[in-house]
Structures are given as structure tokens and as C-alpha cells.
TrEMBL record:
The gene is xerD. This is Tyrosine recombinase XerD. It comes from Corynebacterium uropygiale. Forms a cyclic heterotetrameric complex composed of two molecules of XerC and two molecules of XerD. The keyword DNA-binding applies. Residues 110-295 form the Tyr recombinase domain. GO terms for molecular function: DNA binding; tyrosine-based site-specific recombinase activity. Belongs to the 'phage' integrase family. XerD subfamily.
């Protein structure tokens, strides 16, 4: 009996929803990737999962890379395809898991994009806060300060409510991946920007609709897409030509802490990484910075022409 890819995909997503209790965001990503896999199978005229070979799955990953998908994204798509085949075997629909030995594409060594401390200063100072500042300006200043001041993910910052900042004592609580809670200090500069926004900016944006700290013009919670747009606009104001995002501020937070002498395990806790290995990529960034400074400054770093 043939196994319809879309039919089994629906069963698997239902299983993940009910039995695994995955977050809505994770399920949405799985749904997107499984849809992409099913579409590729259809385009390849494969209508029966029993007919899929290991080579087919390898060709699927290769096609994603040819389309310009990043190695990390193609790797995640492979994880989803593997999950479907593994589920099919577990449920008795498939005899062999042809996807289990397919290797993800190599991501190579990628160092995260960061800003210098001066660039961060310019980014922040370019946002008006004086009498001429609009409510959106005060919000944007507070958003950038909180993102850089805590190193939190943009999704975590956008989940903050006003009450989270009221009498917080310089400590914020974030609910990260896997519903893991962590506490992160927040500095005086960020708190000053938040206070200015709460007093002079947020009341103009609020329509009584949302308790979220950061609001859009309609009074609802600021979305991730809008936060990205805010950061890009701020970068343009500051004359920063590099493409930056909210995550750039997270990377910069970690790098600047390590360059300032912070212990990598402390930075791990602040970022909410489950493994110190993930955090150690920032030590490579710091090492590159040290190498650059040494090359420029040490008398025997370069041969004399």
C-alpha cells in the first residue's frame, strides 16, 4: 500500500501538537518545512513515500542549497524530512528510514556579525530623545537599549510587559527556548530610556489594547518584523552601512562582554545558551579582534619591506 506524503505529514504534525506539546512557533516552522518537502516530492513526481530513496533526500537538500537557502536553514529542513520518515517507520507505514543517514550541508565556520562599541553608541545616540522626539523615537531608543543592554532575543524582549519593568530592581526575567527562565541585569542607561518611553512615549501609542511594553502605532504589541525595521532604520540614521538586525545587538552584547573580561560561562547564562559550546563562538570573534590589534601594534607582527 502506498503512503501519501501529505497524509502522513498531517498525522505527524498532529502527533507533534498533541503528544510532544511543541510551541506554536516551532510547529509553524515544522509545518512550513514539511510543506516544502511535500512540494518538492510532488515536483519530482514522487507520490509514494515508500518510493523515496536516500539519494532523493540528498537531492532535496542539494536543491534547497541551489535555491540559495543557507546551510543552517537547509539543515533544519533536513531535520524535518528525517522526522517525517522516522515517524513513518515508527507507525509501521514505512519499512526503512531512508533519511537517517543523510548528512546536513556543512555550515563552515561562521562568525556572527557584530558592531563595535563606537558603532553601538552611534546607533543609540542617533535616535532623538529631546523635546522634538516622537513617541516612536522614544520607543525605538528604549528597544535598542534593552536589546543591547540585556543580549536577549528580540522575541523575548517583545514579550516584556510594562509590569516586568516596574520596580524590577535592575533585573529582568526572560523566558527563553524550552521555557527556560533566566535572570539578566539591565543597566541604568537602558532603564533611563525605558522610563522616558513609559512617561512620554507609550501613553501616546497605547489604546488600552495591550499590556506589552513595546507598542506599534495602533496600540498593539510590536511585531518581530517591525522590530527588524526599527533596527534597520536606526542603522541608516547612524550612517551604519552594514546590514544589521536585532540579533546583531545580541551578538555585540556577548562579544563586548568577553572583550571586557567576562567569563564565558557567565555570558552563557546571560544569553540562555544550554551549552557553553554555543557561546564559545564569541570567543573566536574576540580572538580575531585580539589578533587584529596585535598585528597592527606589535613591532614584529609583520615583516619589514
Amino acid at each position: 500500500m502506498s503512503v501519501d506524503p501529505r497524509g502522513l505529514a498531517t498525522q505527524w504534525i498532529n502527533h507533534l501538537t498533541v503528544e510532544r506539546g511543541l510551541s506554536a512557533n516551532t510547529l509553524s516552522n515544522y509545518q512550513r518545512d514539511i510543506e516544502r518537502y511535500c512540494e518538492w516530492l510532488e515536483a519530482s513526481q514522487i507520490t509514494d513515500l515508500r518510493a523515496v530513496s536516500t539519494t532523493d533526500v540528498e537531492n532535496y537538500v542539494a536543491e534547497l542549497r541551489r535555491r540559495g537557502l543557507a546551510a543552517s536553514s537547509a539543515g533544519r529542513a533536513l531535520v524535518v524530512a528525517r522526522g517525517l520518515h522516522r515517524f513513518g517507520v515508527a507507525e509501521g507505514h514505512l519499512d526503512v528510514d531512508v533519511a537517517q543517514d543523510v548528512q546536513p550541508p556543512s555550515t563552515g565556520t561562521h562568525l556572527p556579525d557584530t558592531l563595535t562599541i563606537d558603532e553601538v553608541e552611534h546607533l543609540i545616540e542617533a535616535i532623538p530623545t529631546g523635546e522634538e522626539a516622537r513617541a516612536e523615537d522614544l520607543r525605538d531608543r528604549a528597544l535598542v537599549e534593552v536589546l543591547y543592554g540585556t543580549g536577549a532575543r528580540v522575541s523575548e524582549v517583545l514579550r516584556l510587559c510594562v509590569d516586568d519593568l516596574t520596580d524590577c530592581g535592575g533585573i529582568l526575567r526572560f523566558l527563553g527556548k524550552g521555557s527556560k527562565e533566566r535572570i539578566v541585569p539591565i543597566g541604568g542607561k537602558a532603564l533611563e530610556a525605558v522610563d522616558a518611553y513609559l512617561v512620554r512615549g507609550r501613553p501616546q501609542l497605547s489604546k488600552g489594547k495591550s499590556p506589552a511594553l513595546f507598542l506599534n502605532k495602533r496600540g498593539g504589541a510590536l511585531s518581530r518584523q517591525s522590530a527588524w525595521a526599527v533596527i534597520k532604520q536606526c542603522a541608516q540614521r547612524a550612517g551604519i552601512e552594514a546590514e544589521i538586525s536585532p540579533h546583531t545587538l545580541r551578538h555585540s552584547f556577548a562579544t563586548h562582554l568577553l572583550e571586557g573580561g567576562a567569563d564565558v560561562r557567565v555570558v552563557q547564562e546571560l544569553l540562555g545558551h544550554s551549552s557553553v559550546t554555543t557561546t564559545q563562538i564569541y570567543t573566536h570573534v574576540s580572538a580575531e579582534n585580539l589578533r587584529s590589534v596585535w598585528t597592527m601594534a606589535h613591532p614584529r607582527a609583520r615583516s619589514r619591506g
